[in-house]
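Take a look at the protein record below and tell me what you see:
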Amino acid sequence: MDTPAAPPVQGRRGKKHRMDLSSPAADVDLGRAIELIIADPPIPPHLKAAMGGVMEMKEQMMSVLAKNKKLTEEKGIIRQRNCELENRSLI
């Protein structure tokens, strides 16, 4: 068999990039587009139901992201307090 050997080092994945979810204009446009699809009579009911599900998942994701942001801010405050307490104990 003349199968070439695999390279010794496989490609490494880079770090994941943060998603920019702070685009309110795109959010409003998407919501409006889905509302128009749901209100359009010739669109099949199963597609309308799927779009409704997409909107519901989007709303849930936005809620989770808001909670995550709040917890991240709270974590930063707690870390800062912890550092201050550690510095006081060293003095």
Remarks:
- The radius of gyration is 24 Å.
- The chain has two helices and no strands.
- Residues 25-90 form one domain.
